[in-house]
Amino acid sequence: xxxxxxxxxHEVTEMGQEVTLRCKxxxxxxxxxxxxxxxxxxxxxxxxxxxxVPIDDSGMPEDRFSAKMPNASFSTLKIQPSEPRDSAVYxxxxxxxxxxxxxxxxxxxxxxxTVL
Amino acid sequence: KQEVTQIxxxxxxxxxxxxxxxxxxxxxxxxxxxxxxxxxxxxxxxLLLIQSSQREQTSGRLNASLDKSSGRSTLYIAxxxxxxxxxxxxxxxxxxxxMLTFGGGTRLMVKP
Lengths: 116, 112
Hints:
The complex is a heterodimer. Chain A has strands at residues 5-7, 10-13, 19-24, 31-38, 42-50, 53-56, 65-71, 74-79, 88-95, 106-107, 111-115. Chain A is an all-beta fold. In chain A, strands 2, 4, 5, 6, 9, 10 and 11 form a 7-stranded mixed sheet that branches. In chain A, strands 1-3-8-7 form a 4-stranded antiparallel sheet, with no helix packed on it. The radius of gyration of chain A is 14 Å and the shape is globular. Chain B is an all-beta fold. In chain B, 0% of the residues lie in helices and 60% in strands. In chain B, strands 2, 4, 5, 9, 10 and 11 form a 6-stranded mixed sheet that branches. In chain B, strands 1-3-8-7-6 form a 5-stranded antiparallel sheet, with no helix packed on it. Chain B is globular, with a radius of gyration of 13 Å. Chain A binds chain B through residues 4, 31, 33, 42-45, 48, 50, 55-56, 91, 93, 95, 97, 102, 104-110, 112, and chain B through 32, 34, 41-46, 49, 51, 89, 97-105.
């Protein structure tokens, strides 16, 4: 398997523009997670899905952020409108769903977002 | 609020030294604890996972221990090498859902 795939790897945009980040999880994984990493706040969970259904979105900073998972192999994280403080590295991760699971989360390479 | 703290935030050692990275968590009712490695500009890679019923896990030169009663875990790296230079993150999974709570990481540099 190619692992978790994210696109784009880098995104530079201007304040007010819409940004869409994409993620393809590992085939067969039931959970998908979106994280944001900054120097100030470290790694924060934004939202996660189980079997394409959003389970916990309490980490989504505000209404400008939205995430969807239309099918088991694709998810998007959208920011509209974007602001400079959204600049960060956004990671997608996926994992299996098994009771008593020892499975870890597998992370993608991240999307580095810069909002000017 | 469940918090995970890592000390030190940064560490620089000469090659060959044995070293210990520390992780502490506020709630002892954990499901498991993991140590991840992150190289600059890259995603996270899982190194070791310790279930709540376990005391330690070993992989090569790495050994992770878990003491739930004191809310602590350590990652021991034996005979450090320049290739070990990276940021090491500790993450705790609590019983609620499949979420991980991450520490701030320890940035390790091993000098040749």
